[in-house]
Design goal:
The complex is a heterodimer of chains A (about 110) and B (about 110). Chain A is mainly β. Chain A contains no helices and twelve strands. In chain A, about 0% of the residues lie in helices and about 50% in strands. In chain A, the strands form three sheets. In chain A, strands 2, 5, 6, 10, 11 and 12 form a six-stranded mixed beta sheet that branches. In chain A, strands 3-9-8-7 form a four-stranded antiparallel beta sheet, with no helix packed on it. In chain A, strands 1-4 form a two-stranded antiparallel ribbon. In chain A, β7 and β8 form a beta hairpin. Chain A is globular. Helix content of chain B is about 0%, strand content about 50%. Chain B contains no helices and eleven strands. In chain B, the strands form two sheets. In chain B, strands 2, 4, 5, 6, 9, 10 and 11 form a seven-stranded mixed beta sheet that branches. A four-stranded antiparallel beta sheet of chain B has the order 1-3-8-7, with no helix packed on it. Chains A and B meet through β6 and β11 of A and β5 and β10 of B.
Chain lengths: ~110, ~110
């Protein structure tokens, strides 16, 4: 079935640094791909998504491009803020389509 | 438009007890999925309900059960609690059963089993 692998954290950055979180996927067909974010003590929020190859999802300064040739969906932000400190999850639907499968999460800590 | 609300936010139970967690789906959403998130891990799919019927189940034992009501709210019941059931339980709603559309998550219920 479909699965995702994302880089392990924690990732510690200074404010205004460039952030990349790697995510690669294995999938049958071309499912939608998602990034979710979990702030401390909260549930998951949808950060961005892409529904087909070469699509770029973007939100709050974050971007990710659906790369079919490298089976990747890396998350990037050009200048992080302290408020971006959170855990980020890459996700995609299972082959049956009725559940999301998540990566293990990447904790990001941005220091002032 | 209200989001997904879960209750209670925190709960402490003793091993062997039973627990019921509640979830109100986002307005207009007819599908509810439940996830278990152990500390430091990604969410694991428990099951999904669509129009009051179970619509898929993950690798969880039968002591994890659920209900969905006509207003699309849902309950997760766990019997014979074990220490390893300690986790954040997340409810997610969507407009249809298809995960390609993405889900709206609640803030979760933090269950501690002692």
């Amino acid at each position: 079935g479909n699965s995702v692998t994302q880089m392990e954290g924690p990732v510690t950055l200074s404010e205004e640094a460039f952030l990349t979180i790697n995510c690669t996927y294995t999938a049958t067909g071309y499912p939608s791909l998602f990034w979710y974010v979990q702030y401390p003590g909260e549930g998951l929020q949808l950060l961005l998504k892409a529904t087909k190859a070469d699509d770029k999802g973007s939100n709050k300064g974050f971007e990710a491009t659906y790369r079919k040739e490298t089976t990747s969906f890396h998350l990037e932000k050009g200048s992080v803020q302290v408020s971006d400190s959170a855990v980020y999850f890459c996700a995609l639907p299972k082959a049956a389509g009725n559940k999301l499968t998540f990566g293990g999460g990447t904790r990001v800590l941005v220091k002032p | 438009e209200t989001g997904v609300t879960q209750s209670p936010t925190h709960l402490i139970k003793t091993r062997g007890q039973q627990v019921t967690l509640r979830c109100s789906s986002q307005s207009g959403h007819n599908t509810v999925s439940w996830y278990q998130q152990a500390l430091g891990q990604g969410p694991q799919f428990i099951f999904q309900y669509y129009r009051e019927e179970e619509n898929g189940r993950g690798n969880f034992p039968p002591r994890f059960s659920g209900l969905q009501f006509p207003n699309y709210s849902s309950e997760l019941n766990v019997n014979a609690l074990e220490l390893d059931d300690s986790a954040l339980y997340l409810c997610a709603s969507s407009l249809s059963g298809g995960a390609n559309y993405g889900y709206t998550f609640g803030s979760g219920t933090r269950l501690t089993v002692v």
